[in-house]
Amino acid sequence: MFNIVVIASGNGSNFQAVIDAIDSGLINARIIKLISDNERANALNRARSSGIETVIINGKDSNFYPILNDILLSINPDLIVLDGFMKIMPDYIVNEFLYKMINIHPSLLPAFGGRGFYGIKVHRSVIRSGARFSGCTIHFVTSDVDNGPIIEQRVVEVNDDDDEYTLSEKIHEEEHRALVSSIALLISGRYRISGKRVLRLY
């Protein structure tokens, strides 16, 4: 069985999309643990409702990353999914799980990515830029923030009456589909990494 660990800081709607995809048979995997740095994260409630083990690590603890690393090493999952995780992984964790950790970014990378671009700030920047299209990106996590090989992207039109909140809602819907599709690809093993791209093998 393909084992997944999810690390989330907030609502966990993408986490829920993966739970639903597993329950419906769209992907053949199991989520073995939900880790959060926020004891108030709704993702924890979603996990408990689905019988998924949860772990809370105080995000302000100076030993946060060593604790997280020890947990991940003890599990050695096939895949780690970052769902709205608001911290930047240190290189030693990234390198330990290189190409086994993926992130969901709410823009079409490399645009509107990197340090300081997260959550509603991304959508606000897109609106202010005048861009006509935005979207989401599923990518492997590397030490180069938001610049790992791209697995999948989905495009969303930015309408004239959109603000950062309506744009966020539209992109969230595509994030769910893109994440499930990306996990299905990784489970299949029918891909190879070529530079900044993840190529599907047919």
UniProtKB/TrEMBL annotation:
It is an enzyme of class 2 (transferase). It comes from the Archaea. Keywords: Purine biosynthesis, Transferase. Pfam families: Formyl_trans_N. GO terms for molecular function: phosphoribosylglycinamide formyltransferase activity. Its EC number is 2.1.2.2. GO terms for biological process: 'de novo' IMP biosynthetic process. One of its GO terms (cellular component) is cytosol. NCBIfam families: PurN. PANTHER family: PHOSPHORIBOSYLGLYCINAMIDE FORMYLTRANSFERASE (PTHR43369). This is phosphoribosylglycinamide formyltransferase 1. The lineage of its organism: Archaea, Methanobacteriati, Thermoplasmatota, Thermoplasmata, Thermoplasmatales.
